[in-house]
Fold:
Amino acid sequence: MDKTLNQIKKEFSEIANEHRQINSFFFGDFVDAINRDAVEYPLMVTTIQPGTIDDESIFVNLQIIICDKYNESNYSQIDEIHSDCLQVCNDIRITLKQYRFEDYLSIDGAISTDPFINRGADMTAGWTMNVTLNIYDNENWCAIPYDNYDFGNE
Structure:
């Protein structure tokens, strides 16, 4: 695997930190993210989903959530939040297609998006997008940290 999951997490953290419309980032479950003390909205949450491995790649499926808080009595805010958060989702898609990433990953297939309204402890609205990262793997068996393991390749 040309990049580790921790390195991918760091890239998404940097994307969130540098984007002017995202105020906080969480890598994990959405419920855990919004139940933290002092969440700063708009929020970006990246959650790992089931993936696959083949001979050339590791496919990491991520659910990316972009959301903002709204006032319960002001439903017109939801339209504004949906508009802004969808633009941020597209910004992330465009970012992942830049030269910075081309040496070690590509986006596999189309990205599905789904608007949501969450009426939990924090009243939030936004978008989820499901991204499949095709992370290249050159199957470098020499780099596996074994002690004296005989692969039988000679």
Observations:
- The radius of gyration is 18 Å.
- Helices lie at 5-18, 30-34, 76-96, 99-102.
- The chain has a mean pLDDT of 91.
